[in-house]
Amino acid sequence: MEKEDALLTKEEQEVALILHRCQVNQFSRTGFLGAHHAEHPDAPPMPDYIQTANLYSFPADAWRVAEIFAGRFGARLKVECDLIMDVPRASTPFVAYVAVLTGIPMIMPQYESKQRGIDSPFTGVWVSGQRVGIIDGVKNTGLSLRKAIAHCRKHRLVPTFAGAITDRGTDEEEFIDGVPSGSLLRWRRALDFYESESDIPADLIDASRQYPDVFRRYLWVKNHADGK
């Protein structure tokens, strides 16, 4: 797999180093299971895994990443969003930081009915018709963001932004289910940076670059074997 041409900006490099230092980015030769393994349990394991929750063990670093996120997307969110929303639970503290930095009120989705207290599709103060920006920790296939978008639309909120700290997608998506998207760090560009600026073994970086193609080949073989 070829490296991406674009270099990381200075702030993207800072984010990449923070995520590595805070052990958000995990690498293993034995591999990890991801969300897609629920549907494809026999798929090859991933050589890397992004554990956004580890960032919150380092509050100053988490705050700094939120500052950079707010610096890049804050003006846009203030114009396009009345509310911002997390994708539970990995991005919840991060979105709270962004809410403080931007002054945009935060709500949290409630996917299941509560047996006690107030039964509402969202925790927080909201009104039907308000515009909401949705922020995840990491976008893999976009499944979690799509679920959040559908939940908002079902309950009469209008998603206007779908973003993440890290985007593992193989292609830059401008929209997710019709909602404009954006991310702070492109994973494949980060891998190129880590190759020269970290102690991650080169074979694991190469395996991480190749995994999207490995998974696509797996799907092709499986679909043809199933007669699809």
General description of the model:
This protein has helices spanning 10-21, 59-80, 92-102, 143-154, 187-197, 202-225; strands at residues 25-32, 46-50, 83-86, 106-109, 122-123, 131-139, 158-167, 175-176, 179-186. The chain is an alpha/beta fold and 228 residues long. It has one domain: Rossmann fold. Strand 3, helix 3 (92-102) and strand 4 form a beta-alpha-beta unit. The radius of gyration is 18 Å and the shape is globular. It starts with 9 loop residues before the first helix and ends with a helix.
List keywords for this structure.
single chain, 228 residues, alpha/beta, Rossmann fold, two-stranded antiparallel sheet, globular, disordered N terminus
The number of helical segments is: 6
Q: Under CATH, the topology is which? A: Rossmann fold
CATH architecture label name? 3-Layer(aba) Sandwich
Structural class: alpha/beta
Strand order of the largest sheet: 5-4-3-6-7-9-8
Give me the count of strands.
Answer: 9
Number of domains: 1
Shape: globular
Reading the helices and strands in chain order gives HEEHEHEEEHEEEHH
What is the C-alpha radius of gyration, as a whole number of Å? 18 Å
Output mean pLDDT: 92
CATH class: Alpha Beta
Helix content: 40-55%
Largest sheet: 7 strands, mixed
